[in-house]
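Run: sequence + iron/sulfur cluster -> complex structure.
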Amino acid sequence: MSIRRSHTRQVSVGGLPIGGGSPISVQSMTNVPTTDIEAVCSQINMLASRGAEIVRVAVPDRESAVALRSIIKKSPVPVVSDIHFNPELAIMALEAGTDKLRINPGNIRQRSDIWRISEKALEQHVPIRIGVNSGSLPGDLRDKYGGVNKDSMWAAAHRHLVLFEETGFRNIVLSLKSSDPMLTVEVNRLASAECDYPIHLGVTEAGPRLTGSVRSAVALSILLAEGIGDTIRVSLSGSPEKEPVVGWEILSSLNIRRRFPRVISCPTCARARIDVAGIAESVQDSIEGKTGNITIAVMGCEVNGPGEARDADIALIGTPSGIQLFIDGKNTGGIPGSDIQGYLGGIVDSYIRKSGKTAGG
Ligand code: SF4
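>> structure
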């Protein structure tokens, strides 16, 4: 399936383009106190190693805004400052060198504040994401449009867009997030039809890892397959370590972008001759931090194993004599089950190098 992307303007976030046909980027967000510079930097590094190309940090107070300068200097990826309620914090974040601001139309609405923020952002060539959340819609719009729905969400975004456009500021990314995946789909379709600002996709308050991943995958896949969306974030409760991983799985499953080796494994059944789940986990650990456009299969037995091995770049198949390693569909012999992680790491590196199957765009 080829996806025709909706036309959007392009903005640059610390040198990384969003929109205008640029690759759909994967974002995440830290969840440790922003004042703890060491903890934030360590989390940003971890998220970047898992594929986050942009990381957002919350800036709830002046102390956090002060910490931003050091965080931004040390970060390997562009940093977005998330601001609510207090326009002064937006100004401080811009002065600290933030690569992008995220503000919420539900709580920074004064025309004079918008002018100050946009003048400063314009001067520093910093884009702003207008991030509408279904949970913090202005009350007057909820009343006017009969609750939280695509019309009240779009009206909140539009009202804010107009305020920025009046100042001449158009370096904007838009996001409209609901905890309801299908409302997220509807409102982003509407936004895409009504304007050409690049769109940041996400389902807000999506839930813990399993439900959050499923809800995000449902909404994002529908929209991305329709060509809507220029950057994505999968929001999961708790540690954000899996957010970029799930984001990349969504892009990879839609054949939009591949960056990390793909592990496939059978569900297992009574025929399984090896510990498929354990081995697949070890394989996943052995490719941690590696980039490459390859597929590694772990199959429990000889029923579907050889067939999958033919289609995969590397395959581990259970047989009566233990685990057999297939490379490019050819059986290269048995491997020990005791240290899969140590054994496979080097094989994957050398396979990616020799085959030239490095990460796609
Ligand atoms: S590959 Fe073998 S073990 Fe795995 S599900 Fe299929 S039949 Fe069962």
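>> summary
DSSP finds twelve helices and 15 strands in the chain. The two ends are 18 Å apart (CA to CA).
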